[in-house]
Amino acid sequence: MPTNLKIALLGYGLAGRHFHRPLIAATAGLEISAVMTANAERREQAAGDLPAAEILDSVDAVWDRAGDFDLVVVAGANLTHLPYTVGALAHGLPAVVDKPLAATAADAMTIRDAAHAAGKLVFPFQNRRWDSEFLTILEHQEAVGSIHRFESHFDRFRTVPKGGWRELADPSAIGGVLLDFGAHLVDQGIQLLGPVVSVYAITRSVRAAEAAEDDMLILLTHASGAVSYLTGSLIAAFTEPRFNVLGTRGGMLLRAYDTQEEELRAGSTPADAGWGIEPLSSAAVIRVAGPDGSTIESEVQLTPGRWGTFYAGVYDAINKAAPPPVLLDDAIANLRVLDAARKSATTGLAISLDPPAAHG
Known about the structure:
Blueprint: E1 5-10, H1 14-25, E2 30-36, H2 40-49, E3 54-56, H3 59-64, E4 71-74, H4 81-90, E5 95-98, H5 105-118, E6 122-125, H6 132-140, E7 147-155, H7 177-193, E8 196-204, E9 215-222, E10 227-233, E11 243-247, E12 250-254, H8 260-265, E13 284-289, E14 295-300, H9 308-320, H10 328-347, E15 351-357
Parallel strand pairs: 1-2, 1-4, 2-3, 4-5, 5-6, 7-10
Antiparallel strand pairs: 7-11, 8-9, 8-15, 9-10, 11-12, 12-13, 13-14
Helix pairs in contact: 4-5, 5-10, 7-10
């Protein structure tokens, strides 16, 4: 029997504790053997959650014993993603990196160069490729014909800022919804509709003028001529629908959001029975035109979400030379779009991308 891949988990906040830890625990062949956090409360939480893991207080302590690990998971604040990932590669370790991979496409290319030099893989954590509502669109898209508009909304209703680095205006904090929500929305837009040739964006700080943007609109023009209309907000009183997909023969409306994040926060994992199955009330509505011009409407249950697919793919890529679950170049393409969105929001102009931003 092969031994488990031993993981050093860097960071034990929301992402480390509630996303990566349970997803790793549910994946055969993986185990967290060390957690790195300097925060006293999080060290106590990690010790309680993972009694067999060593709790380390600095990234240097991880690098000092790099030979004890097979994989690093970078799950700390965004400003740690670049140095921790490059550090892991320099010590001969592949890395999973929470989104966004880096602050800019240029920084992401630095990671790619380091990965090539080390001969190790980097896995961007684009877990929302396996959201129930998005998988439903992929499964049923042919019913609505050629998609010409993709409306995607990822909104929250928080009138009072929670505080923390995500809301800091200082660019070095790498906060704001553009990189937070946008990293997922852009990834899904390219997955569904292909290469992006033009980007127009508006970003705003609605709740507090001297804070990172909490509201955004990104309009993507794809090489096919289709458009993606992407919104992300922390101050949206009405957060539905999640998706509105318009095609040449009809459309698809999905009001409900995937619930895998809530399941993880509540203590469930992909190893549990019924994981990712959404309630019947969350059904997608498909509306198409009949041969006589009439409107035909039907409902389909959401495809079960599969966040567990990511870490199973990481294991197979490392142990079986399988293709990575998410290509590093895909995350770089996403960041090229987000770079253009930031420039567009500043200049008020649409930004062309040449070559187009495309996934592999």
